[in-house]
Each structure stands twice: as C-alpha cells, then as structure tokens.
Specification:
By secondary structure, the chain is an alpha+beta fold. The chain is 33% helix and 24% strand. Helix 7 crosses helix 12.
Length: 853
C-alpha cells in the first residue's frame, strides 16, 4: 500500500517521546518568562476577562468559569483547571492573589476547596494590570485547540509576575521552582535595570534582597539567595518565626506565629506530636494549635527546667519548622526552556514590556491618524457646508453624491462616507468648535506617538512611569525576614560545663548529680543515704566529670556508643536514675560492659581491649571520635570470643594485667603493643593453656601501691601486691596468680582494690554479699586465699564488683576539689606571670626614656 511508511520502532518511540516531552514543557508545565504564567493560568484569566468578571463586578460560579475554560481554550481535566484557579485565590500560596474567591477555597492545614458548584470567584484588582491593554494589539493571538476561537499567546503583564508569585512545575526531564517576591522590590529592581543596563545580578540584590513568601517566616542566610539570583539555582533555608514566652511555674513555651512557605500546618503539628511520642523530641509537655482568623499560633509548652533553645534546635532539625526551598529559575524564552539569573529574568520582562508599549503606541497612533483623517474631512466640509449640502441635494443617489464629493473636494472614500453620515447637529457652532478641539488634540497626540516610536528612551520612560504607578497602588511591607546565616545552635554552648558525678548501677541505672548539690547534702554531719536502687541493685561505678565530657560505652558485643555527660538525666542523690538502655539505642541482647570518660579526643591517647581468648588490641582514641546514634564496631571478634576489658591508657607507663580462669596471669608493658585500626581483631596478649580463658583485665598505673583482688567460683578470694607479678613479654603463658584446687574452683574475676573500698560477690542464685576490702588479707601471688562467700553444689560465685559507698564518694569529691584547687592555682600563677611581664616591659620603657633624657 502506498500510504504505509516503514519505520524502526526505536526511532518512532524516540520521536513520539520527544513530541510528548516538548508538549508538556511548552504547553503545560513551564511558565513563559514574559507574563510568568503557564497556559492554564493564562487561559483562566483570559476567559474571566472575556466574561467581564473584573474586580468591580459580581462573583460568578466557579463551575461556569471552569466550563468556559474547558470548552473554549483548555481541553484537559476540570480538576486541573479548578485546582489552578483555587491556587490563584489562596493567600497562603500566592503572594498577590490573581483571583478573589468567595466560599471555601481550602486552608493552610491542607483542607481542599469545596466543589466548584459551591464556590464563586472573580478577578482580583491587581489582575487588571496583567490584562491591561490586551485589546490594543499588544500581543499575538493564536487559534484554540479546534481552530474556532483566538486565544492569547502571552498576556501584556504590567508587572514581572514570574517573580511576583513564583511558580512550581515538573515537566519531562526538567523542573521549575521560583519563589514569590515583594512587588515594591521587584519594581525597584526593574527600574534600576532600566536606568543601568550594565547592572549585575549581584548589584540587583540591593533592590531585590530575596523572596517574600506569603506565609512570612525567616530566610536563614543569604548564600542561597545569591546563588539563585546569580546562577539561576540555589537552596534557600526558611525557618518558622517563633518567640519564647514565659508561662506559669517557671516553665517556657515556644510559640510559632509564621511557618515556612508550602508547609502544611496540621501535618507539622502531627509530626511534632509523633516525635514526642517516639521520644525523639523530649522536654515537651503540651502541644496546642491556637490559630484563628488573626493568624497562626502554635503553642509548644516545655517541661520545667527545659532550655527552650535546645528544644527549638531539635524542632528545626526534625520537623518542617525549618525547610529548604530549592530555587530553579527555569522559564520559556521564545518557547525554549532556559535557566535564568535575576538580571536575565528582568531583561526578558523589559523586552516584553518594550514590545507591548511599542505595539500599543502604534495601535493608538493608527487609531488617532484614522480619526484625524476623518476630522480633516469634517473641517473642509464645514468650511464649504452650503455648497456641499447643495451638491448632496442635487445628486441622484448617495453613491453619486459620494462620487461627486470625492471628485470635487478630493475627499477620500472614508472621508466622503463620514461626511454623508454626519448628523445635522454637528453643524451648530458648539459642535464645530468641538470638532476643531478634537482635531487639535489628535494632532498633538499623533506628534507625541511618533516621538515615542522614534525614541526608545521615551518608551522606557513610559515603562518606568507605569511601574511606579503599579507600585503606588499595590505595594505592601515585606513579610519574610532575611537574616544573616544562623548556624544550628550548638547545644553545648548552652550547657554550663560544671563538675558532676555520674553513677551507674549493676542493673544499668545511670544518673547525673551536680557536685554542689552533692556537697550541700553532706553539711548535716551525718552524711546521706545511698541512692534509691531497686532490690539487689547497687552502684557499680562512679565518675567525676564535666558536663561536656564524652562518655564512651563499650558493650559485651564489642560495639561502642557515645553520649555527653549532660545527656544523662540530672536527678537527686536519692533518685534511682534512668536505665541506660533507654538513653542509648543498644542492639538486641546487648549490654554495657565498660565505660570510659573522655574530655577531648586526641591522637596521643589510646584504648586497650582484651578478649576472652587472650587477644589484645590497642587503638587510637581518635578512631572513636565520630559515632552516630546506632553505635560503631569497637573491636571484631573471632567466633566464640567476647570482650573482657576495655580501658583508656592515660600514661605511657601504664601496664596491663590479664588474669585467666585457671589461675594464670600476665603483667606487661603496653609499649610492646602497637596501635592498630578499629576494625582489626588484635594480637595475642597471653598464650592460653588448654581449657583456659581470660576472665579479667585491668590497667596498672602505680605498681608499688596497688593490690589486686582475685575471687574464685567457690567463694575464695585474696589480695596480692602488684609488684609480686614480674613483667613479661606479650604472648607469654603467664605465671601463677592463684593456687587452684577442687576446693577453690576456677577464677571468676580480678579487680584492682584499695583498703577503704568494698566489694560485692554475686552467686548464680542471685544472692549478694558485701565485704570490706580490708577484711580480705593480703597473700602471696600463688596462694589460695580465704573464703569471702560460702557456696554449695547448687550455687557458685559468678561475678565480683566494687561497690561505691559514701567513703568512695567523699574520696572522689576530695579528689575533684583538689583538682579544681590545682587548676585555680595554675590560673592565678599564670596571671601573676603576665602581670610581672607587663611590669618588666614598663620598666624597660622607663629606662629607655631616662637614657634619652
């Protein structure tokens, strides 16, 4: 068949997809740079104008408008047309609404508009400026979809509406997202560009400082604005406008008065409530929406003692109280999509207005010249009125009269026809005078129009005058505040870095107590009771640290987690505290095993690990500087292995002591162990005999002063002096630490102890016994010791821990006070040295002056 065309399917698909893409880009999704409108918006406004629905006319049903647009200009879905019209009427979406709605047009809470059969609309007053002079041949028209009507290609647009209300559109392979702006600032920027064509986008920012969103808010920083205006793309950070209010009982409330552009208020409140429920946001006691006709008011009440700035910082981080507006200034330029900077957008608008004013002036000139031509004929006719009347009376018919007028007086056909149609009342003196005045006025206008068309600067002058008039009519105050970049508040800047005591119990309850409170409770002379622990629980460790110190928690699975001391709830001394598993997001079946406090992460410090199979690993502390909330692997194990010890090496002279369950031990210098990476397994620390495993390890700082407590499964224990254990090379089989027999059982734990401390032994039945360390005699390295806890066949000792009592608390406090005193002494000494240095400088100057004299 002759009408069959052979074509590869790949080529056909490519061509069809390209046609579809260009149709979406040009005819639906991307606005024209000249009037800033997409086809659907342009057609809605034109149809309303054709229906005479100006701001001073009554409202009409939206269904009628939608039907007009669908039937004549926009052959798509009615929901698309109605949705576009609704958006143009929403004061939270459009900075300057183009449609005035009557009825339910939706809300900032995400509520949809009522059905179009219930709502009414008309054009807003400012829309007159978009359609002004459309009937004066200022723009081109094209045929509609069925070639039955004409529709405008672009609207005249007295104002740069692309930037005025912004736009958002997703096409094929491209998207546009332009924010709204303040009308007065846009006019100022456009006037500046007209006056100085060499002005840069950077300089235009002085006139147009940034977007002005209808919902207000705060733009955080100017870099995103600069990028958007100079490159056409940028990311602008927008924050809600909030204030802190004091409420009853010393509590605070965060009150939100303005939210970022295009944020759903209801969804925002739901998100905050969900985060509070999931405990990602703490410190919030109540959340209310008190918004009304006067504006937005979201009240976030805080718990007593909560720092508002800290909570606000988290709200900015986790909710839409802070959003990013990604600017893509993409628009159609001569039907070609192009990313434009600020100057280019305004230049294209100025070109458009130049053409509109030029075409309007030509239209007015042509109209004036046609009327002037007729008035010239009237003037000649009035001068010869008697002869002309006689000529007409004596003519056979109107055609012969017209021909006679043309032949005798050289009238044009239009002039002759106008004279023939002239009413007799125009012959009165007053009417003759009016004709003369009209003629003179037209002559003046014709001269003016020609001068305008001959001088581009006059056209620009008219453009400026019209812009100034628009500004005077519609200008209003900026709603969005632009601030210098405000970094996320560092919570630590708000925390007082004071000394605190951190305690953790055997069952994982942790709490923080200020040292001042601790000492204040001791002034009665009798001391205070220890903390309110649950049954069979006790304080297993206690640290003096500063609020901003880092706490590294190493678990039995070889992972490490990090938190700051201030993140542990501060409570009274009698309080039980909070389970650490409720603060740290441990993995399933994971328990904290060792805690290390770190003031600052340094390359000079290292962490030492010991595992059950005798492996040791030394890793630089900096490897654990960056840990997220899900933790990080601290050490990798071989199958069946597990973590026995983790500690921070504070001095180069620190030594490591490793004890096994069969009663052997190794004391070694740590400089024998080289530092390796965090994910490495490690090296051999002790060579184990068959059936043996490591049960404990500890760091030794002062070998001459320290003693080691060893406890067995059958309840035997002894203390030994560290100096009795000779240092050995890494990887040795060790020396006897305890003389084991069937009576003593295997070693279950080794602890470094002091005379005034206490230990608790725990058996397999959950029974605990508390014993003073000084009641356990010091024996030789290879002895069996004494009974510290009786056992039987049904129960064995499974763990031994040091318990912190009031003497420990006093000792820790005194050490902290001594450390503080020493710091103060050093500070005062430094101040004195600086004063002495200044005095010596003054003396030097004096002596030099004396020599000169």
């Amino acid at each position: 068949m002759s009408n069959v065309i052979d074509k590869y399917v790949e080529e056909e698909m490519k061509q069809c997809y390209l046609d579809y893409s260009m149709s979406v880009i040009v005819s639906r999704a991307i606005p024209d740079v000249r009037d800033g409108l997409k086809p659907v918006h342009r057609r809605i406004l034109y149809a309303m104008n054709e229906l005479g629905m100006t701001h001073d006319k009554p409202f009409k049903k939206c269904a009628r408008i939608v039907g007009e647009v669908l039937g004549k200009y926009h052959p798509h879905g009615d929901s698309a047309v109605y949705g576009a019209m609704v958006r143009m009427a929403q004061d939270f979406n459009y900075r300057y609404e183009f449609v005035e709605g009557h009825g339910n047009f939706g809300s900032i809470d995400g509520d949809g508009a009522a059905a179009m059969r219930y709502t009414e609309a008309r054009m807003a007053k400012i829309t007159d400026e978009i359609l002004a002079d459309i009937d004066k041949d200022t723009i081109d028209f094209r045929k509609n979809f069925d070639d039955s009507l004409d529709e405008p290609v672009v609207l005249p647009a007295k104002i740069p509406s692309l930037l005025l209300n912004g736009t958002v559109g997703i096409a094929v392979g491209m998207a546009t997202n332009i924010p709204p702006h303040n009308l007065g600032e846009l006019v100022d920027g456009t006037l500046a560009l007209i006056d100085n064509r060499d002005i840069t986008s950077q300089e235009l920012i002085d006139y147009i400082p940034g977007p002005d969103f209808p919902t207000g808010g705060i733009i955080n920083g100017r870099k995103g604005i600069h990028d958007a205006y100079t490159k056409g793309r940028g990311k602008i950070q927008v924050r809600a406008k909030v204030k802190i209010e004091d409420i009853s009982n010393g509590k605070h409330a965060i009150v939100v008065n303005e939210i970022p552009y295009q944020v759903n208020k209801s969804a925002l409140i739901e998100k905050i409530a969900l985060l509070v429920k999931e405990k990602k946001l703490t410190g919030i006691s109540d959340l209310r929406d008190e918004s009304d006709r006067e504006g937005i008011r979201i009240v976030i009440e805080l718990k007593k003692g909560e720092e508002p700035e800290i909570v606000l910082n988290k709200l900015y981080k986790y909710t839409d109280l802070q959003t990013s507006f990604g600017v893509i200034m993409l628009a159609l330029v001569n039907n070609v999509p192009k990313v434009l900077n600020l100057k280019e957008v305004l230049e294209e608008y100025i070109k458009h207005r130049f053409e509109v004013i030029t075409r309007r002036t030509k239209f007015e000139l042509d109209k004036a010249e046609k009327r002037d031509h007729i008035l010239q004929g009237f003037r000649i006719a009035l001068e010869n009125i008697d002869r002309i009347i006689s000529l007409i009376k004596n003519s056979k018919d109107s055609n012969s009269a017209k021909e006679s007028l043309i032949e005798k007086y050289a009238f044009s056909e239009i002039q002759a026809r106008s004279i023939m149609d002239m009413k007799l009342q125009r012959l009165t003196g007053l009417e003759r005078e009016k004709i003369e005045q009209e003629f003179q006025e037209l002559e003046r206008k014709i001269k003016e129009f020609k001068e305008i068309l001959a001088d581009d600067e006059k056209i620009y002058g008219i453009m400026k005058q019209e812009l100034e008039e628009v500004k005077e009519k519609y200008n209003d105050d900026r709603r969005t505040v632009i601030e210098d970049e405000r970094k996320d508040i560092d919570v630590e800047d708000l925390i007082k870095d004071e000394k605190v005591i951190l305690t953790i119990t055997n069952k994982g309850y942790v709490k923080r107590i200020g040292i001042d409170n601790y000492k204040a409770q001791r002034r009665g002379g009798r001391g205070v009771s220890s903390q309110n622990t649950i049954e069979d629980d006790f304080v297993s460790d206690m640290f003096v640290m500063l609020n901003l110190d880092t706490v590294l928690i190493f678990t039995d699975k070889g992972r490490v987690y990090k938190m700051k001391a201030y993140e542990v709830p501060e409570t009274s001394k009698q309080s039980r505290g909070k389970l650490i598993s409720n603060i740290i997001n441990f993995q399933e079946d994971e328990k904290p095993a060792f805690i290390i406090k770190v003031r600052e992460f340094s390359e000079e410090k290292e962490v030492i690990f010991v595992t059950k199979d005798g492996t040791i690993k030394k890793t630089n502390l900096m490897e654990y500087a960056n840990i997220n909330s899900n933790g990080k692997i601290a050490i990798n194990f071989r199958d069946g292995d597990g973590l026995v010890f983790a500690g921070l090496i504070r001095k180069e002279t620190d030594q490591l002591f490793i004890a096994t369950k069969l009663g052997y031990s190794v004391r070694m210098d740590l400089n024998e162990v080289r530092s390796i990476s965090r994910t490495a397994i490690g090296v051999k620390g002790i060579t184990l005999r068959e059936g043996d495993s490591v049960v404990s390890a500890l760091l030794i700082t002062s070998p001459d002063e320290e003693t080691i407590l060893t406890v067995t499964a059958n309840g035997y224990g002894k203390r030994s002096r560290v100096i009795e254990y000779t240092t050995q090379k890494r990887g040795g089989m060790g020396i006897k630490n305890f003389r084991l027999t069937d009576k003593t059982g295997e070693i279950i734990g080794v602890k470094p102890v002091k005379e005034d401390e206490e230990i608790i032994a725990i058996n397999s039945s959950g029974v605990v016994i508390r014993t003073a360390v000084n009641s356990i005699a010091v024996h030789g390295r290879a002895t069996s010791g004494v009974i510290i806890m009786k056992t039987d066949d049904n129960s064995k000792v499974v763990a031994v821990v040091k318990v912190k009592n009031e003497k420990d608390e006093e000792r820790i406090l005194s050490e902290a006070e001594e450390e503080t005193l020493e710091t103060e002494k050093m500070s005062k000494k430094q101040e004195m040295e600086e004063i002495i240095e200044e005095d010596s400088l003054f003396q030097t100057f004096d002596s030099e002056e004396d020599e000169e004299i």
